[in-house]
Design a protein that fits this description.
The complex is a heterodimer of chains A (189) and B (937).
Chain A lengths: L4 E4 L2 E2 L2 E2 L3 E4 L4 H8 L18 E6 L2 E6 L5 H4 L3 E3 L6 E2 L5 E3 L2 H8 L9 H17 L2 E2 L3 H9 L10 H13 L4 E2 L4 H4 L2
Parallel strand pairs in A: 2-7, 10-11
Antiparallel strand pairs in A: 1-4, 2-3, 5-6, 5-7, 8-9
Chain B lengths: L18 E4 L2 H9 L10 E2 L2 E2 L5 H5 L22 E7 L5 E6 L12 E4 H6 L7 H4 L16 E7 L2 H11 L6 E6 L9 E8 L18 E2 L18 H17 L5 E9 L12 E7 L4 E6 L4 H13 L7 E6 L13 H10 L6 E4 L2 H7 L6 E10 L5 E11 L7 H11 L8 E9 L14 H19 L3 H7 L20 H10 L1 H4 L1 H11 L3 E13 L5 E9 L5 E5 L8 H7 L2 H4 L5 E3 L21 H7 L18 H29 L19 E3 L2 E3 L6 E2 H10 L3 E10 L5 E6 L2 E5 L3 E6 L5 H4 L8 E3 L3 E3 L13 E13 L5 E10 L7 H20 L33 E5 L19 H14 L10 H8 L1
Parallel strand pairs in B: 1-14, 4-15, 13-14, 17-18, 21-22, 33-34
Antiparallel strand pairs in B: 2-3, 4-7, 5-8, 6-7, 9-10, 9-18, 11-16, 12-13, 12-15, 16-17, 19-32, 20-21, 20-26, 23-24, 24-25, 26-29, 27-28, 27-31, 29-30, 32-33
Helix pairs in contact in B: 7-8, 10-11, 11-23, 12-13, 19-20, 22-23
Classes of the chains: A alpha+beta (189), B alpha+beta (937).
């Protein structure tokens, strides 16, 4: 534990935060929740195991999913992140005018019950979709790709099926995310 | 032993000393935005809802959980947020000497320190200490269990709070300890025995049964056997024990033709791992005596009642208690859990600032309720020729941990569920739940039945193998058919349809092509063994004292407003209840208030002793038309789909019959010669709703809005509030409303007349705008029916296909398929999600989840998900699983509660499949790679 303070600022959901002195060992999740009142990113374990706290780090080479509960503000300083509050389109008053494609799919598929894990799944599935925009995969590999991308997120209510089906359907129905080539696995007999 | 069951404690809908309000969290926040809770935009398409009513705020990360709330989010609260940490004992072998605050630097001295001495001084005591435990461990006493709370530290500011927490957490010197103590002798929390000796045929009168005669309770105060002495001519307990003795004697010296099998199963100690850890946030305004509590709970009414009692009895003034339950999740972990009381206590010492007490995962593991581990021993006699079960004796031993909580009734439910889908001509099922120094176990999903039904399902598989009978066929031969009695001697409700699930499983390619698939898989995958296993169980829903309140009201402009006791724990009950009005009113609820506790429109009182009162007392109490056996129930026991829906359905039916149908008649009969209805015959049972219009007998279709307007104009009934009660049968009552006899499966009713009502009616609407209608007669289920223990069942069958890596011992689920019967589904997608989620949780129980009970276990404060493995998507055959719900028998089959049963058969199916794969039977879960490796070696 350190008592040292650092002056921290970063970009959250497209908005730069004001520089603020924070404990050097403060985690990004604590910063979001206790300083910015962005509580949609949830605490689950504090170990980066369950990914209830997953957020998107918009890195120069593309979106990465990071567990905010073990991501220090010292590392986050100067970087750009998206939390669950930043995925939908909102009007000037902050009211939602359109959900993101992944959010809409999770809603349509009844993917969640309690929803504690939902923000983490939104982050992981969204990052996958965005990654496929530049690196599409064969349609026959989509289920395997989705499973791999979302396997880090723990859900205790709905058993994963409806989250993964929703993500799969978004990918299969969005032009450019898949190639038309037949997957090697599909040709195997 | 006290006959404890799941219960709510609220004694009266409006009799608390302080004003008590339970306000759903979303409503409190909605107050900030001054927006009413209406149907979500674009919710209904082609007559069906497109998503959960709470879906949009949940998927966008809005503040819906209690843990999301900070002081500045709550209207009227001060902005400054304080934070509390709870310190717990991590050993029980020495006397506690205090928290070592000297470890904290000067600037980290707590702003408030609350321990036993402090609360004693202030007159604060836990309500129902026997049930919840003492608030804090006194100094100089040894803890009675690991994880016992010793103090709460409060900090005015987050940074100091987190620094202090870092100093104390995991610090072996955080608590000071004195002399070593000798472990105490612990008295079991309870024991009970279900003895049933059937007559010559299943439909003949039982010679002895709990329902006909009595349950038998253990008395651990005496030195000898806790059970009554066998006495064939004595009281019910003695007679039952005589029958039990005879049954066991017969099993030890069986008649020719009987095969007798001994089975056992040891279930592990589990944390259900609700992802939202226990938490709350509360503000006490000493100037006004108002206490505001935000909390994640499955029992908001009980929490409100107990906090009110606890604070009112202390030095702290309490004039107003406002409890805001957030949307939450628990799987039972937040049902009658203890944390809300610590949240309230912390607030009292907050110095006027709101205090947040939110457990981290380590602390949640250390203090949150656990699933009881059970050791089950069974002796089953089977006729060798027919394969029919003849007799069973079972002894179940549970470990309830440090505080009693629901342990006695968990044990009873476990024992009464052991039979699953099967019929026994005679049975002696004995259960005892012990106290121990482990963190407390409570009301987990399944409520003991996971443990007992898996035990018997493993034994059935063993018997099938030994007798050379197909496991599905053996189950079919022994089915509890419609009209047969369960082990309590009660006849279950309705048609028993588990046989249809067995038929479906038996016809599935997984079963019919078993040998070929096994051979093919093992040829293609050297080093792996293939296996399939089956299991079919049926699980009760409800508690035997289910009570609910619902108010439905139509507005002059054609909206339908609902107030309901239901609160949301993730399963979708709030969504479902909004839809339940459609059958009678042709419309989903437009605006809703959930988790409502204040019911001024239906003034009721209750002694709240539905399980223990005598028949004589019930008969006397029922003379008071305001009396009901219980005000309402917690959200638990899979009770929403059937019991809450029944209340909604009855309210909707009465609102239609007393209001909208009368309005329709007044329109159709308008004009000379009886109007358009004059030439026709019109009967109430001809009415139906089509596309939002009421139609009947070729009459002009009438939209809901027109009927609402007419009902108000004519002063017809436009609102009803009902109360319902079920003790394994519904209470029914008759009323006289406006001179018209009205009957229903309800026990209290009030009505509201529309805006055009005359002065004579308006003066009668003195209960928050409603008029209480005293019942003319009431018929409560007899108190003896408590002994039925269970009559409502929902069955699920599951087949699992898996592989075992013979090198590593790892099990991989290849696919699974389940069949379920649940009556008419309210929202099929929610039912499907429950099935899928329950199966995943069951897979975790079968293969991964396990905790040591004592010093190495969660009570030591070091457990987290890094070493408590939960199933992930790759563990549950996410792309190769199937679930089917068989069609209801009629459009009026009531929906059944399925939240618990879904996770059970998969556990036994996995164990049976592992046996199929490697030829080894396991009698202990989880089936870890280490256990399998050891067995293979």
């Amino acid at each position: 534990m350190s008592d040292r303070m650092l002056t921290i600022s970063m970009e959250i959901n497209g908005t730069p935060t004001d520089p603020v002195d924070l404990p050097e060992d403060l985690m990004l999740l604590e910063y979001l929740q206790e300083y910015l009142n962005l509580t949609g990113t949830r605490y689950g374990c504090g170990q980066g195991v369950c990914r209830a706290c997953a957020v998107i780090h918009d890195a120069p080479d593309g979106p990465k999913v990071v567990p905010a509960c073990i991501t220090g503000v010292a590392w986050a300083n100067g970087r750009s992140f998206r939390t669950v509050e930043g995925h939908a389109t909102r009007d000037d008053q902050g009211a939602i005018t359109q959900l993101s494609a992944i959010q809409q799919a999770f809603l349509d598929h009844f993917s969640f019950q309690c929803s504690y894990c939902t923000p983490g799944f939104v982050a992981s599935a969204t990052a996958l979709v965005e990654r496929l925009e530049t690196a599409p995969v064969a349609r026959g590999d989509v289920e395997e790709v989705v499973l791999k991308a979302l396997n880090g997120n723990i859900c205790r209510c709905t058993g994963y099926v409806r989250y993964l089906e929703a993500a799969r359907d978004v990918i299969l129905s969005t032009p450019g995310l898949t190639t038309e080539e037949v997957a090697i696995s599909d040709t195997a007999t | 032993m006290p006959k404890l069951s799941r219960r709510g404690f609220l004694r009266s809908a409006g009799a608390a000393a302080a004003a008590v309000h339970v306000i759903p969290l979303h409503q409190a926040l909605a107050d900030l935005q001054t927006s009413p809770q209406h149907q979500p935009p674009n919710w209904v398409q082609n007559g069906k809802i497109r998503f959960r009513q709470d879906g949009i705020p949940k998927v966008t990360g809005n503040k819906v959980f209690a843990t999301d709330i900070r002081a500045h989010d709550m209207p009227g609260w001060p902005d400054e947020q304080s934070h509390a940490l709870i310190v717990r004992a991590d050993r029980t072998d020495r006397r506690f000497q205090g928290v070592n605050l000297a470890l904290l630097p000067d600037d980290l001295a707590p702003d408030a320190f609350v321990d036993d001495a402090q609360v004693q001084q202030d007159g604060l005591r836990m309500i129902e200490e026997d049930f919840y435990g003492r608030l804090f461990l006194p100094t100089d006493q040894a803890p009675s269990y690991l994880g016992q709370p010793v103090a709460v530290l409060i900090y005015h500011g987050y940074e100091r709070f987190r620094r202090a927490n870092r100093v104390l957490q995991f610090n072996p010197d955080a608590l000071r300890w004195g002399d070593e103590v000798t472990p105490r002798d612990l008295v079991p929390y309870g024991g009970a025995r279900f003895v049933r000796i059937g007559g010559p045929t299943p439909d003949a009168s039982d010679r002895f049964s709990p329902l006909k005669d009595s349950l038998i309770f253990a008395d651990f105060d005496q030195d000898e056997s806790p059970w009554p002495a066998p006495d064939p001519e004595g009281e019910a307990g003695g007679r039952g024990m005589a029958y039990a003795e005879e049954l066991r004697s017969e099993l030890s010296d069986p008649p020719d033709g009987w095969a007798v099998y001994n089975g056992r199963y040891t279930s592990q100690y589990v944390d259900p791992a609700a992802l939202e850890p226990d938490n709350g946030n509360a503000w006490y305004d000493a100037d006004t005596g108002a206490l505001h509590v935000v909390v994640g709970t499955q029992s908001p009414y009980t929490n409100a009642d107990h906090i009110e009692q606890m604070v009112s009895a202390s030095r702290f003034s309490l004039t107003d208690l406002r409890l805001h339950p957030g949307y939450t999740v628990g799987y039972g972990q937040k049902e009658h859990h203890v944390l809300p009381y610590y949240v309230a206590v912390a607030a009292l010492y907050g110095g006027g600032r709101p205090v947040r007490l939110a457990l981290d995962r380590y602390s949640h593991f250390q203090g949150a309720l656990k699933r009881h581990p059970f050791d089950t021993r069974m002796t089953l006699a089977v006729d060798r020729e027919t394969g029919l079960f003849q007799s069973i004796a079972a002894d179940l031993r549970g470990n309830g941990g440090g505080v009693m909580n629901f342990s006695p009734s968990v044990g009873q439910v476990a024992a009464s569920a052991l039979q699953g889908i099967h019929y026994f001509p005679k049975s002696d099922l004995a259960v005892q739940v012990d106290a121990s120094r482990a963190p407390t176990a409570g009301s987990m999903r399944g409520y003991g039945t996971l443990q007992s039904m898996v035990a018997f399902e493993l034994l059935v598989d063993e018997v099938a193998t030994d007798l050379g009978i197909d496991p599905i066929e053996l189950r079919r031969r022994n089915l509890l058919h419609s009209g047969m009695k369960n082990t309590q001697g009660a006849i279950p409700a309705g048609t028993m349809r588990a046989g249809e699930l067995l038929d479906a499983a038996e016809a599935d390619p997984l079963w019919t092509q078993h040998a070929a698939r096994k051979a093919e898989f093992e040829a293609e995958n050297p080093g792996y063994r293939y296996g399939i296993g089956v299991s079919c169980v049926q699980k009760d829903y409800g508690t035997g004292a289910e009570a609910a309140l619902v108010q439905l009201e139509i507005t002059p402009d054609g909206e339908l407003h609902m107030r309901h006791v239901a609160s949301e724990i993730g399963c979708g009950s709030t969504t479902a209840q909004m839809l339940m009005t459609e059958r009678h009113l042709g419309r989903y609820a437009d605006r809703v208030d959930f988790a409502v506790i204040d019911w001024p429109s239906l003034p009721l009182n209750s002694n709240n002793e539905p399980y223990t009162m005598s028949q004589e007392d019930q008969d006397a109490a029922a003379q008071d038309p305001h009396w009901v056996p219980r005000i309402t129930s917690p959200r638990s026991a899979s009770n929403s789909a059937y019991y809450f829906s029944h209340a909604t359905n009855e309210a909707a039916r009465l609102l239609f019959e007393l209001g909208l149908w009368q309005a329709a008649l007044s329109i159709w009969q308008e004009g000379i010669g009886g109007g358009q209805a004059g030439p026709l015959v019109i009967r109430r049972d001809q009415a139906e709703w089509r596309d939002g219009h009421l139609v009947a007998s070729g009459l002009q279709p009438l939209p809901f809005a027109d009927l609402a307007r007419r009902a108000h104009e004519r002063g017809l009934i436009t609102g009803v509030t009902v109360h319902t009660f079920n003790r394994w049968a519904w209470a029914t009552a008759e009323f006289e409303v406006d001179g018209t006899p009205v009957s229903g499966a309800i026990d209290a009713l009030s009505v509201k007349w529309g805006s055009g009502a005359g002065a004579d009616k308006k003066v009668r609407m003195s209960d928050a705008g409603y008029s209480f209608q005293p019942r003319v007669t009431v018929n409560y289920p007899p108190t003896q029916r408590n002994n039925a223990s269970v009559v409502y069942y929902a069955p699920v069958a599951t087949i699992v296909e898996l592989s075992v890596n013979t090198g590593s011992g790892e099990v991989q689920i290849l696919s699974h398929k389940s069949w379920m019967e649940c009556g008419n589904m309210i929202v099929p997608e929610l039912v499907s999600g429950q099935l899928q989620g329950g199966i995943a949780m069951g897979i975790g129980h079968a293969l991964y989840e396990d905790l040591p009970l004592y010093e190495a276990g969660p009570g030591n404060g070091t457990w987290n998900f890094n070493r408590y493995r939960l199933p992930r998507a790759s563990d549950v055959a996410v792309w190769s699983q199937h679930g089917e719900v068989i069609a209801p028998l009629s459009s009026t089959d009531p929906p059944k509660g399925i939240a618990e049963v879904v996770m059970i058969p998969v556990v036994a199916a996995i164990c049976n499949a592992v046996h199929d794969a490697i030829g080894v039977r396991f009698h202990e879960t989880p089936l870890t790679p280490e256990r399998i490796e050891e067995a293979l070696s």
